[in-house]
C-alpha cells in the first residue's frame, strides 16, 4: 500500500471513530449534551482534530443519521427476497417499527430532530437517505399494484399514506406518548393497530 492510500485509509478510520463516538454519546446523553469537545474527549483527541473532518456538531450528527439509515436499509434489503409483494410490504412495516423500538435514539436522529435537515439546507441538497428509503417502499407498493393486490393508483401517494400511518403510531410509542397505557396494553395496541391496518390495506387500497 502506497503512502497516499495509507493516508486515505487513516483519514477514513478517524472519520469513522468520530462518527461512532458521536453516536455513542448521542445515544447515552441526547443531542443537547453532544458537543465537539465531548466527542474529542471520547476519542482522546483535541477538538481541532474533529474540525478537520466536520464543520460543526450538526454535520457530525448528519453523519450519524447517515449511518443509522445504512443500518435500516440493510435490514430492509434482507426483506426484498420475499416474493409475495404484500407479505414483503407487511415485513417492511414490522421491521420499521422493530428498528425504532430497538434503536429509539437512532430513530430520533433519522426522523425527529431537525439538525440533519438543517445541514442539508446549508448544503442546498435533497434528503437522499429519505428518498432512497421511500423509493424502496414505492417499489414494493408498485409490485402490489402490478400483482392486483391494490387497485391501479399513484404508488407514491399510496406509499406516503402507508409510511405516515406506520410512522405515526411508531413515533407515538418511541416518544412515550403511549405511556398512558400499561406495558401490556401498549404492546397489545401496537400489534392490533398494525394488524387492523394490514387488513384495511388488503381489503380496500
UniProtKB/TrEMBL annotation:
Residues 12-72 form the HTH tetR-type domain. PROSITE patterns: HTH_TETR_2. Residues 35-54 bind DNA. Keywords: DNA-binding, Transcription, Transcription regulation. Coiled coil: none annotated. Gene3D superfamilies: Tetracycline Repressor, domain 2. GO terms for molecular function: DNA-binding transcription factor activity; transcription cis-regulatory region binding. This is Transcriptional regulator, TetR family.
Amino acid at each position: 500500500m502506497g503512502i497516499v492510500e495509507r493516508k486515505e485509509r487513516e483519514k477514513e478510520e478517524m472519520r469513522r471513530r468520530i462518527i461512532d463516538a458521536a453516536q455513542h454519546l448521542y445515544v447515552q446523553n441526547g443531542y443537547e449534551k453532544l458537543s465537539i469537545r465531548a466527542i474529542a474527549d471520547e476519542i482522546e483527541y483535541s477538538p481541532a482534530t474533529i474540525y478537520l473532518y466536520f464543520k460543526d456538531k450538526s454535520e457530525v450528527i448528519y453523519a450519524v443519521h447517515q449511518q443509522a439509515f445504512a443500518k435500516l436499509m440493510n435490514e430492509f434489503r434482507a426483506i426484498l427476497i420475499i416474493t409475495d409483494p404484500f407479505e414483503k410490504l407487511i415485513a417492511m412495516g414490522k421491521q420499521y417499527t422493530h428498528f425504532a423500538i430497538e434503536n429509539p435514539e437512532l430513530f430520533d436522529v433519522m426522523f425527529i430532530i431537525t439538525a440533519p435537515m438543517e445541514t442539508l439546507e446549508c448544503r442546498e441538497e435533497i434528503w437522499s437517505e429519505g428518498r432512497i428509503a421511500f423509493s424502496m417502499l414505492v417499489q414494493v407498493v408498485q409490485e402490489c399494484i402490478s400483482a392486483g393486490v391494490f387497485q391501479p393508483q399513484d404508488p407514491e401517494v399510496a406509499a406516503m399514506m402507508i409510511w405516515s400511518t406506520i410512522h405515526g403510531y411508531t413515533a407515538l410509542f418511541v416518544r412515550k406518548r403511549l405511556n398512558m397505557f400499561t406495558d401490556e396494553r401498549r404492546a397489545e395496541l401496537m400489534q392490533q393497530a398494525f394488524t387492523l391496518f394490514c387488513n384495511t390495506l388488503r381489503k380496500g387500497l
